[in-house]
Fold:
Amino acid sequence: MAFVVTENCIKCKFTDCVDVCPVDCFHVGPNFLVIDPDECIDCTLCEPECPANAIFAEDELPEGQEIFAELNAELSKKWPSITEVQDAMPDADEWNGKEGKLQLLEK
Structure:
C-alpha cells in the first residue's frame, strides 16, 4: 500500500518529504508533488515530514481525498522525479489548510 499526496499540497509544494525518501518516489509538477505508487516502499518517513499534513497511507485517505490515489499514479508517470529539497511555492503559507484546491491543480 503506497502513500499518497493529497489536496493540501496544491499551491504549497513543500519538499521536506523529498529529503527523507529513501527510494526517490516523489515527482514534481507545477504546483503539486505526487508519489509513484510503484516506487513507494511504505517506509512512512515522508508522512511526518510534510508541513502541510498532505501525505497519507492509501488505506487511510481522508474522506473526499480518494481521487488523489489515482492522480498520484497518473501524474507520477508524466512528471519528473524530484530528489532534492526545493523552495515551496511563494505563497505556500497562505494556501496551507485551504479547502477546495483540486481545481487549482496544474497538470
In short: Residues 67-76 form the longest helix (10 residues). The domain at 3-82 is CATH 3.30.70.20 (Alpha-Beta Plaits). Strands lie at 3-5, 26-28, 33-35, 55-57.
